Each structure stands twice: as C-alpha cells, then as structure tokens.
Known about the structure:
By secondary structure, this protein is of the alpha+beta class. The chain contains 7 helices and 9 strands. The protein has a single domain, classed as Aminopeptidase (3-Layer(aba) Sandwich). Helix 5 (137-152) links the parallel strand 7 (124-132) and strand 8. The radius of gyration is 16 Å and the shape is globular.
Amino acid sequence: MAQTITPELLLKAYAMGLFPMAESRESADLRWIDPARRGVFPLDGFHISRSLRHAILRADYQVTVNRDFAGVLAACADRPETWINPEITRLYHALHGMGFCHSLEVWREGALVGGVYGVAIGGAFMGESMFSRATNGSKLALAWLMHRLRAGGFTLFDTQFLTPHLASLGAVEIPRAAYHARLEQAVERQAQFEPPGYQPLPPSVAAPSSAG
C-alpha cells in the first residue's frame, strides 16, 4: 500500500467500518477489509457452557487489563500463519499508547495463558485477535471482556469474521449495511474500557454472565 497508515488514519478507518490486514507475517503491505458479512457478539448473548462456567468458578487464574499489551499482541502473532506483521504491530502499539487499544490478560501461576486485544472507539469495541496457551484460556478472556464491555457502556462488539469457535460462544453474522448502521451509532456513545468503580465480583462469587 503506497499510503503510509498513521494511527490517526487507522482510527478514522475503524470509525468507517474498515480494518487492516497483512497477507502474512512477512508481507510489507496492508489492505483494508470491509466484509460483506460481519461477525458481532451481542452484548447479552455470550454463551457460557457448563464446562466454561466451572472453569470460571474454579478461580485458579487472575484477570488483568493493559498489564502486558506487548505480550498479548506477540502471543496472538505466535502461530504458523498470521496477518500480524511488523507494521500491524507498530500501529497497534501506537494506538495502545494513545489509549484506544486495550488488552485483557488471563494469568495462571504467573504465566500468561490467554488474552485478547482490540480497539475501542466510543461505544464500539473492535476485537482484533485472541490466543490461548491453556484449556479455556481464550474463553475466559472473552467472558471477562464481555462483562467489562457491558459494565463500561459499550453497545457493539465487533469480531470482524465469524468463526465456528466464536459462533459456539454466541457470536453471529450481520450484513455489512446493518453493521455500518450499528457502528455509526456506537462510535457516538460514551463508553469506558476501565469504568470508574468497576470491580467485578470474584469468580467464586459470580460468573461474568450474572455478575453486576
């Protein structure tokens, strides 16, 4: 792509419904994507299976936000095929420094075992990627991310594409026009990834689907 993508341009693109991807880790170029059908998570539609609920209530893990953004991004790129190239890494580190890109980490015994990161603009959260290094690592991250987004006043959780894994957790596909309409409304809302006073109950007391 001839045009240099700046963090500011990237934010404008997200607000218009576009997101960038590289062909591979080695690719030097990025391309803008606007799928005909978009994956989204209904904020009240996250499906917690019996096994995931047991994992949540086991409370043998810790959840943090923005503690190790670099570690989450690197873990998401640590796979045989990835669209996260050096330019993507540079841009999202910049957005993180500007307060628009966030990570949620799941730890067990001091080790990073799961996580997710994405871009927040107004009341829209654009999930970029997630990873898991232990059973239920990414599912725990998504469960607590969903809880946080509801608490912070978000109205749109964009997953970009719908995968079988995301569909099993409650994500759905909507047409491009419907997504753009939702996005236009969501970016104008006031929402906070770290809402004042947000203190989720310990997992031993309440799971994300029922905690207030």
